[in-house]
Design goal:
Elements: E1 3-9, H1 16-33, E2 37-44, E3 49-55, H2 58-65, H3 68-77, E4 86-90
Antiparallel strand pairs: 1-3, 1-4, 2-3
Helix pairs in contact: 1-3
Length: 103
Amino acid sequence: MSLVVVATMVPRPEFRDDVIAVLEESIARVHAEDPGCEVYSLNEGRDRLVMIEKWASPENLQAHSASPAFKALTAGLEGKLAEEMDVQVLMPRPAGTPGQGQV
């Protein structure tokens, strides 16, 4: 059973570029190191950054949460966000066509 994670971050304006750099470094590490990672993508909004993730199983997500890449990510974000990161762990609910109805 796969899981989708939506993590929303609002960087302090003066740290936006730093936060993006930390996230991009994390993306490269996770793509290379975590075989259970199906999607790990950065998306930009006007005042926020949103990571959309898809994990093959709860165990894969749990392993990621304890990984060196995740620890480096959280350390790199320290003091750079305007508010606490909002992390939602969701169960996909497929609807519509297979290619369009789920992440």
